[in-house]
Amino acid sequence: MSPFIALVLSILSLAIDAQTPDPLQKYTISAPGINATFIPYGARLTNLYVNDRNGVPQDVVLGYDDAADFVRNDQTVHTYFGPVVGRYANRIKNGTFTIQGVTSQIPQNDNMGNDTLHGGNVGYDRQNWTVVAANASSVTFSLLDQAFEGFPGNVMTYATYSVSAGPRWTSRLVSIPLDEPTPIMLANHVYWNLGAFVDPAGSTVLNHTLHMPYAARYIQIDNIEVPTGGIGSVNRNDNSTSYLDFTSPKQIGRDIGSAINGCGYNCTGYDNAFILDRPRYSGPEASDLSMLTLRSNSTGIQMDVYTNQQSLQIYTCDNTNGTIPVKRSQQHTGDTTYVEKYGCVVIETQQWIDGINHPEWGQDEYQIYTVDSEPAVVFAQYDFSIVG
Fold first, then answer.
1. What is the pLDDT of residues 3-58, one digit of tens each?
2. In this predicted structure, what is the pLDDT of residue 338?
3. Could you read off the pLDDT of 302-336 as tens digits, one per residue?
């Protein structure tokens, strides 16, 4: 590292330390028909309210009422409720990769030490981000990553969240490498339930209708959910992968029973990376078309996702087991409601998982960044509406 870069990093670090507020302080932003709350810990979304078909605001994301519970969760079961995950989201095979002849080893914190998940033991989700700016409708956080978890080089990241009439929530994650070539792949890790637990059908996402019109391919995985290098089709002639086919709208629960080992060994459900093949009149990183539509019959709330990323990881909360209560805003009966199996769905907008270990995929330009390259930008826009 050059003396100049070292000096810059020292100044940035001192400035950030001086500005870091209570990492659990809540920042709420609002616009007509929507309000959202965030905390600096993990640059994390804790609440998001939109109106249902009756005009009643419903909180459609999972989390905790007490912000300190996010820290306690990360120290125990580590569910990743609502944060930014990185420096590299999802899994890295064997926790290792090589860039320009230099091999890095990242802590293998998943599957009994066989791979790295969401950036290692202490990823971006467990960092205290700095509040750079905040007003009535937007908030921006920053994080100086000084080679956290053994990733090469230093990276400056900004997370800007805004809400607007529509209603719409927009997330922009911008990462700038400061010295060495490095992989960067961030994602928002939000747990959604558009049914908001308002009735028995709304207590899971099995009745949610999911549509991913441009997701006809997926990344094949082994029994610990690490990519094998294979690319599969969701509509093979033998119908063996038809349970993965959401190119036409269908309820999540319709074929989930056929997703045996689809989310790892002895697991039934979805935890899959779908490749987004945009039509020729669009572009590989265009955000002009909805890549995903999700809706709940319980509330009538529909969400359309627009993104510049080339993949969507869909996880249907296959491992939740009824031990975590939903927030007070989501308690609609006299008895306490808990997050049951399939009680939510995570939608990660990202690039192809473990692409840094599969050069044959041609993903390097979207995952490896240098001081001379464009910054890494993850754009995601969530538009809400009412149907039915």
1. 545 544 554 554 445 456 799 999 999 999 999 999 999 999 999 999 999 999 99
2. 95
3. 999 999 999 999 999 999 999 999 999 999 987 88
Give residue 11's pLDDT: 44
CB 197 within 8 A of CB 330: yes
Quick one: pLDDT band at residue 239, thresholds 50, 70, 90?
Answer: confident
Of 63-72, 115-124, 229-238, 348-357, the least confident: 229-238
What tokens appear for 63 in the block? Answer: 């989390």
For residues 36 and 91, give the distance between their C-alpha atoms in angstroms, rounded to a whole number: 29
Residue pair 355/385 in contact (Cβ under 8 Å)? The answer is no
Tell me if residue 348 is catalytic.
yes
Residue burial 147-176, b: 16+ Cβ < 10 Å; e: rest: bbbebbbbbbbbbbbbbbebbbbbbbbbbb
- Contact between 92 and 238 under an 8 Å Cβ cutoff? The reply is no
Phi, psi (deg, nearest 5) at residue 369: -125, 150
Q: Which of 118, 189, 211, 358 is catalytic?
A: 189
- CB-CB contact of 107 with 120 (8 Å): yes
Residue 216 has φ and ψ, to the nearest 5°, of: -90, -5
| Structure token pair of residue 9 | 């990093």
**Candidate list 149, 180, 225, 348, residue with the active-site label:** 348
CA 186 vs CA 2, 124, 177: distances in Å: 27, 9, 13
- Backbone region of residue 300 per phi and psi (left: phi > 0; alpha: psi in -120 to 50; beta: other values): left
pTM: 0.94
Q: How far apart are CA 51 and CA 388, in angstroms?
A: 14
Sequential DSSP letters for 157-221: EEEEEEEETTTEEEEEEEEEE-SS-EE-B-EE--EE-TTTTSSGGGGSSTT-EEE-TT--EEEEE
